[in-house]
Amino acid sequence: MKFRYVFLLAFANFILSSTILQLFRINDAIPNFCIILSIVFLALYSERHAYYFAAISGLLQDVFLGRMLGTNLMIYIIIVYLATLLIRVLFKGNYLTPVFLIALSTGLYHVLFYLVMFFFQATVPFHLIAGKILTEIIYNSVLGLIIYSFVFKRTNGYKLGDYNA
Amino acid sequence: MNERYKKVIITVVGFILILLMVISFGGRDRITVIESQLGSILIPVQRFLTNIGNYIDEKTEPIINVLNYKELNEDLTKENEFLKEQIVGLTMSQKELNELRQLKSVLKYVDNSQLDSIVSANVIAKDIGNWYNMFTIDVGYEQGITKNSTVVNGNGLVGLVYEVGEKWSKVIAIIDHKSSVGFEMMRVSNDYVGTLSGTTNYELIGELFDPKANVEVDEYIVTSGLGMYPKGILVGQIYEVIEDRDQLLKRIKVMPVVDFKKIDKIMVIPYLEDEKTDTSEIMNHEIQLDGE
Predict the structure, then answer these.
(1) Mean pLDDT, range A76-99, rounded to an integer
(2) What is the pTM of this model?
(3) Mutate which of A8, A24, A63, A111 to test chain B, going by most B C-beta atoms within 10 A?
(4) All domains of chain B, ordered by start, with CATH?
(5) How far apart are the C-alpha atoms of B167 and B160, rounded to whole Å?
(6) Tell me, what DSSP letter sits at residue B109?
(7) Confidence (pLDDT) at B112
(8) Which of A49, B61, B148, B211 could form a disulfide with A45, with the two C-beta atoms 3.0–4.6 Å apart?
């Protein structure tokens, strides 16, 4: 995939998430497509695709809807970096791989976000937000699996989980 | 790219980002030209999509809420009865108010209102994370918006302008804001004051300065004019009163009157450091203008 498409996709993702996708909040939680797509890029395209996507998405989120510049950008880059280490030892053709990676990344995102906000004394009590986070983890995993299997078929030419291919 | 080289880059980038966070924390008075221009490009697209979203939401809401209508109807009937009782009392106060207003004009009291500078705006994008309820609006310093301007809607207090761009601004909701809103009770006598802070969970927690304050559930509270917000804006309704004997404090839990899940149109009252607006004065001014 050409890098200009990654760039466009990051913009499209930001615009759609901040507008139309607000309608699809479940238990007040909105899925985080930045994490989902970063993992999909990392696993099925290349590390560079994932870094670019994460950086642009994070930057847009910080500039327009963040409390300070750099928070989301840094967290997304750390997530991609850690996921890179994990993906080397994981089998990409398994259903559980995207679910595991996306759920873990989403959890990590919130832990890191909490830490950053803790140092800036702008955090909120964790128990108030725990329900939302849990919903988001499930939401992201389900959507991530759908997107991952769709892209997997496009890039590899056979279905995800088809071990006879 | 070898592994060591990559680690160095990540560390350097990390430091730069942390520095950036420290600099930009708390909201900047004026954002950079690049951010401002980027916003100007994205805003029309976002506004268009938000309008579509609002339209869909408006059309589907009756279907989704069909089961709640009975309960809602009962609540409204009760509220209606309560309001009817209040009208009687208020009519009497209105008469007194008119007399006072006449006295005020006789004494040539100067109104300190910013009626001309109130700006109405649309919400164009909402937070894509799950932690806060920030949103962007389609007015910026070109329309006279400044940092810390108060944001209200038809129901009451919404929040504060956090950062200002050329044609757009970032708004932080009161339910997110750690720093407090000064409040007072919406009543004629026995007025108590205190501060409120957000919990991000669509509720506010307040502390009354007077531990012996006599407040009750279902009472409304308004801004007191202490702090950033102008005086007299409706904030919310008390739904729980907690007595904290250890700290000699009385706490209240407040349900905001604004539905933060559905904000599309808002008004901004620009913040001026030396002048504090009194919205009750603005409202009076409006009434007078209507009368004319």
Answers:
(1) 90
(2) 0.83
(3) A63
(4) 118-282 (2.40.10.340)
(5) 17
(6) P
(7) 55
(8) A49
